Amino acid sequence: MKPQTNRQKQALATKHKIFSCAVTLFAQQSYENVTVQDICREAEVSVGAFYHHFKSKENILDEGYRLFDQQSEEAWKQGHPDEPLAAIHFLILEQAQSMENMGALAALQYFKHQLSSNEKYILNPDRFFYQTILHAVEEETADGILHGDPVVITEDILSLTRGLIYDWCLHEGTYTLSERSQKVLDMIIHYYQK
């Protein structure tokens, strides 16, 4: 892989700054009330720079899922548990902490976007997040620790944790999502250990 040029690094830094400022604004106000001009003002970039990096305001939300996957993969590469059940806990905790860091209002914008988007990126089974959890579940079913179809178990883990994030958003982040997600995950795993 070729090293990035200074121009490429600057472009990536600008894109990240636009994204970060947009998420901050989404966390402070309703997504619908934030304009591209608001984002540009906060990021201190021109409208042209915004459209160079993003097709639309909605595209920022799509980028958020991809960024989450990149961050999850990076955290995974920096060190993860070898034991499959601990690895699943690790990834679900990463997901919950990412939502907590973003804030309930911003997280809600992502969910609203996915409900109305034609591209349901969050459901893509090719994502690193999905594939890594599936692989851990397959290991546990092969070893007889979990019982059932690995795809069904993976889908249950992901759908229940997504539902928990939605509930956390409804409660405006008034409880600790990372703690609750681990508790819910333990219940799912216990069910499939029978």
TrEMBL record:
Which species is the source of this protein?
Answer: Faecalicatena faecalis
Instruction: Note the superkingdom of the native organism.
Output: Bacteria
Give the annotated DNA-binding region, as residue ranges: 35-54
What InterPro entries is this protein classified in?
A: DNA-bd_HTH_TetR-type_CS (IPR023772), HTH-type_Tx_Regulator (IPR050624), HTH_TetR (IPR001647)
- Domain HTH tetR-type residues, every copy: 12-72
The lineage is: Bacteria, Bacillati, Bacillota, Clostridia, Lachnospirales
Checking PROSITE patterns in the record gives:
HTH_TETR_1, HTH_TETR_2
Keyword match Repeat? no
Q: What is this protein called?
A: TetR/AcrR family transcriptional regulator
Keyword set, alphabetical order:
DNA-binding
